Amino acid sequence: MKRYATLVVLLVTATGCRDARPPQDAGAVLTRVRQITAKHLGIHVDEVKPTSTFRSLGADALDIVEITMETEDQLGIAIRDEDLDAVAGTANLDTLPDRLTVKAFAEVAARSEKAKPVPAGEPRDPKVLNKHDVGSYSELSKKPNPHGFVLVPFLPPPVLLKMAEHDAGRELTAEEAEVVKQNAVVTAFPPDQAEAIMRKRRERLKTEQSLPVERAQPPASRPS
C-alpha cells in the first residue's frame, strides 16, 4: 500500500475516512489484482493463479502492502487490514503472505468501500509539510513543519527492520538500520490522527502477540 503516493489511502482508513459503495464485479477485480501483482513482482500474469499465495509468488509482507496500495489507487477503494487478516486467518505479518491467496485478496478488494478523496479546495504549499504528504522519512523530515504534523511510518520501524534483516539473512549494522529508517515511507498527519493510528497499531500488536507462534516459509526466489 509506486507506496508510494497512495500509501495515505490505507492509513487514512484508520481514522474512518471511507464512503459506502456497492461491491465491484469480483471477476474484473480479480483480473486487475493479478495484473497488479504480476507487474509488481516482475513475473508474467499467467503465473499469478487465483489460488496462489503471495509467498508462493515470491512476495513478502511489504510487497502485499505495496500491492494493496496500487490496488486501492487503481480501484479508488480503501482496503482494511482487518478484512485481509480475516480471510487469511492470521493477523501476523510474518505469516500473512503464506496464508493470503490472490483470490481472497481480490474478494476483499471487490467488497471494499470507496476511499474518501482529500477535498480539492484544501490549500497545499509545496515548500512546507502538508497534511497527508507521503514520502520517505529523509525527504519529508527536512521540510518546514509549521502546522506540527507528525510523520507516521506506514509500517512500524521494528517491522521494517525485521523485514530488512530477513532479506539480508543477517542482523543489520547500525548504519544499515539507519538507512532503513531514512528510506521508510511516512505520511504527515495531524497529531490527533497520528495518535489514532498508533493506538490502532498497539492494539494490533497485542493481538499478534497473543497468537501462537508460526514459522513462516522462506520466500520463493524471484526471476532476475
Give the topology, please.
Elements (H helix, E strand, L loop, with lengths): L6 H6 L5 E2 L6 H16 L19 H15 L1 E2 L2 H8 L7 H4 L2 H9 L2 E3 L18 E3 H4 L9 E4 L3 H12 L5 H10 L1 E5 L1 H19 L15
Antiparallel strand pairs: 1-3, 2-3, 4-6, 5-6
Helix pairs in contact: 2-3, 2-6
Describe the protein's architecture and organization.
The chain has 10 helices and 6 strands, in the order H-E-H-H-E-H-H-H-E-E-H-E-H-H-E-H. Helices cover 46% and strands 8% of the residues. With 224 residues, the protein is mostly helical. Strands 1-3-2 form a 3-stranded antiparallel β-sheet. Strands 4-6-5 form a 3-stranded antiparallel β-sheet. The protein folds into 2 domains: 7-115, Non-ribosomal Peptide Synthetase Peptidyl Carrier Protein, Chain A (Orthogonal Bundle); 134-209, no CATH class.
Give a quick rundown of the structure.
With about 220 residues, the protein is mainly α. About 45% of the residues lie in helices and about 10% in strands. The strands form two sheets. It has a three-stranded antiparallel sheet.
Pick out its properties.
6 strands, 224 residues, three-stranded antiparallel sheet, 2 domains, Non-ribosomal Peptide Synthetase Peptidyl Carrier Protein, Chain A, disordered N terminus, mainly alpha
Gyration radius, to the nearest Å?
18 Å
Helix content: 40-55%
Strand order of the largest sheet: 1-3-2
* CATH fold category name of the largest domain: Non-ribosomal Peptide Synthetase Peptidyl Carrier Protein, Chain A
Please give the CATH architecture of the largest domain. Answer: Orthogonal Bundle
CATH class of the largest domain: Mainly Alpha
Number of domains: 2
CATH homologous group name of the largest domain: ACP-like
* Strand portion: 5-15%
Mean pLDDT: 80
- Please provide the count of β strands: 6
